[in-house]
Each structure stands twice: as structure tokens, then as C-alpha cells.
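Retro notes, structure queue

What went well: the backlog is down to a handful. What didn't: a couple of records were mislabeled last round, so from now on we paste the full input next to the output in the thread. Example, using Capsular biosynthesis protein from Rhizobium puerariae:
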Amino acid sequence: MAKDWYPSPGMRLGATIYVTRSAPWLKHYFGIGELESAFAPGIRGVVFWGGRSTARLARRIAWFRRLPYWYLEDGYLRSVGLGKEKTLPISIIVDDLGMPVDVSRASRLERLIAASVDMDVAGLGAGIREALIASGLSKYNNLPHREPRLDRTTRRRVLLVDQVFGDVSVPMSGGSPESFARMLEDAVASGVQCVVRTHPDVMAGFRKGYLTEKAAQTPGVVLLADAVSVASVLDVVDEVWTVSSQFGLDALLRGIPVRCYGAPFYSGWGLTDDRLGDASREALPRRLARPSVDQLTAATFSLYPSYRNTESWEEIDVFEAIDMLVMERRALDLD
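Corresponding output:
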């Protein structure tokens, strides 16, 4: 499927200095010699990364100059190494309508998911889903596949996913600190074995989470900070509850029930149990289509993102990207 919402190949594009310095490789995705300054005369459009202050500045510049603009972000299958380690992403998303994490407006991904019900993509989605499960891949893939240390239980085991405080996907999805508090209260009241997946930086005291401190003071709640892959955690839980984490998407691929306390892009389609607050309910009236998990998978991992070999910058498809990440993990002895 042609991505006809992208900038025209070779179009002169501007960006803030943050993007031109930190991601000069973006030029390969747009067929240009280099990204220029957003203030440069003669540019035909503006691109910006994420939803932070530099992105807001770039969008204001585009508005002022009456230029089209595009949102950029990592794809949902990114890399083995972490972004903060300067590992290049094997995929990015380019969106002319909005950010998928932003519940206030429909993104291009949201439109593709809705359209997928009338497209012959279920077979494609099934192939992608099966390959991702077989390889144990997620967005980041730097951790080993190893069974996490959890006490045995006869109760239903529910994973609650904490997120780092300041993660822009939380407020943009309509979530808040109260969403995490309500999620924890519901889990404790339900009588399940409540396992909170916390970030290692939060456990070490370097960052603040939404759930971890309160969960640590709640009797019967298990904190899980083992340095193991997402797939390893999902292998040992019965449900996943989240506000806006990709953990929920990874669980959906595996047929694990998912409850959402925010409105991530994969919620509201009839595939998740949505327990939304007032700020995130506005997305649901837009999401009337009822795609299958395979149709949503095809839209998310094939129709929407672009993939590139980060050494040659040759364009590749999702299956080639999966193969490359698997080989990289094997070379690092992570499987």
C-alpha cells in the first residue's frame, strides 16, 4: 500500500535544530540530501519528532509559515538497543494528521485501523503476529528471554504496567496519576495476584513512576523489575492492565485479555476492556469499526510505518525487519 500521506520524494523539508542534529539519518526516509532548518527559505514542509517542546515549536513555525507538517516517531518495532543509547530505529512512523498517542484527534494510524476492516489484510496481519510471537520481539529488544521470578499462585495473575512519570503518552492518551491509582485499586479489590511491572530506573531511584511507590506499600502486590524481555513477562501472566503502554499491544497479539485505563491507539475497537476516565472517552465515538486483531496488526506494523536497513538505508518490509532484529539478538546471545 502506497503511503500517499508522506511528503513527496525529494521535497525540501525543515526541522528544528534538535531533529537536524540528533536524527540526520531521517533524510534517507524522504529521499533528500539533508534536513534543513525550519526557518530556511524555500522549504516546502516541516517535520518534527514526538510531542515535547521542540515539536511544539516546529509546529508553530509551520503554522506561521503556512507550511504542511508531519509528526515523526519510532515505529512499534524499533530496535534491539535503546534509543537513549543512540541505537538507530529500524522503523519510523510519519503522520500528517496527528500522533497515535494523542486521543484528542484521529491520527493516520487510527484511520488505517478503521479502514482495515474493508481491506484484504487479515492474512498479512496473521503472518506478522505469528512472526512477532515466534521471535519474542517487541518495540525494544535488548533484554533476554528468561522466566521472571514470581511466586507460584492458583489465582489469576494480572500484570499492571507502570510507566515513567513524564511519559507524554500518559496525558496525551487521557491518562493521569488517578488512572494508575484506580487501576491498582481495582486490581487489589478483585482478589487476583497483582503484579506491577516497574521500570528498573524507578526501582533504582533514578526516575519516578506512577505506580511503583504506592504498589510497594500495598500488601499482597508483587513488584516485578526483572531485566527480562516483554515476551518473557507475557508468558507468565493471565491479563494485562495498562494506561497507554505498548505492553497492551504486545498482549493483544498473544490473545491475552487487555484492560485500558487510558486510550492508546489499540483501545476502543472492541478488542480491549476499556475503563476510561473522562479525558480519554472522547476517542471512543470515533472508533466505531470492529477490526480483528490481525487487521489491527497489519495496520500497525505494515500499512503505517516505514522500515529501513540501518546500515545501507535500503527500504525493507516488516518481515525483513523481524529477521534482522532476530539475527542481532542472536549475535548478542539474548535468545
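Agreed that this is the format going forward. Reviewer comment attached to the example: The chain has 13 helices and 13 strands.
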